[in-house]
Amino acid sequence: MAEQDMTMAEQVHADIPGWGVDGDPANRPGVPMLLKPEPRGGAHWERPERQPPPDFPVLKRAELDELTPAFGTAAPPKGLSGVLRRVAYAIPENRVRHVMLLLVADRVDVLESRLLRSPAKSLGTVLSLVGGSWLLGRLRT
Questions:
Q1: Measured between alpha carbons, how far is 141 from 133 in angstroms, rounded to an integer?
Q2: Residues 51, 70: contact at Cβ < 8 Å?
Q3: 105: how many CB neighbours lie within 10 A of its CB?
Q4: What is the DSSP letter of 27?
Q5: Structure-derived torsion over alpha carbons of residues 113, 119, 124, 125, reported in degrees to the nearest 10
Q6: In Å, how far are 52, 53, 71, 72, 112 from 67, measured between CA atoms?
Q7: What is the model's pLDDT at position 1?
Q8: How far is it, in rounded angstroms, from Cα 82 to Cα 30?
Q9: With a cut of 70, which residues of the chain have pLDDT below it?
Q10: 96: how many CB neighbours lie within 10 A of its CB?
């Protein structure tokens, strides 16, 4: 009876595209992505040419022994956000703390840049974040 039910189910769902993708791996479109990547060859180098190291520190993942062949130097770490990023990059990438610290560092970087651009305007925002909005209200009256 189970054999008849299975045949009936296959007949009912035969016209649904993608039905049974967890079936035979030879028929699965995602199987090539599950295989280990192999070098394709044809490159003119054995190991890519490395960028010269910059004068300031460049952050890298904790798992890497050295910098990757190409890296960005447009925004070097600075201030409190740079300290947070250094702490985050000391934590492995598979930890939530790593990502959360990088998100906090981004927000701190925004606050730092706003403070440098217009300190008086940003003072209220910074104080309200640390619970100082009542102080601004008292200073205005």
A1: 13
A2: yes
A3: 22
A4: G
A5: 0
A6: 10, 9, 7, 11, 27
A7: 46
A8: 40
A9: 1-7, 9, 20-37, 121-141
A10: 8
Structural domain spans, the chain: 58-63+77-141
The Cα–Cα gap between 77 and 105 comes to 10
Please state the pTM of the whole predicted model.
0.53
CA 49 to chain centre: 26
Task: Tell me the C-alpha to C-alpha distance, in Å, between residue 54 and each of 24, 70, 82, 86, 135.
Answer: 51, 12, 16, 17, 44
Cα three-residue angle 114-93-106, rounded to 5 degrees: 5
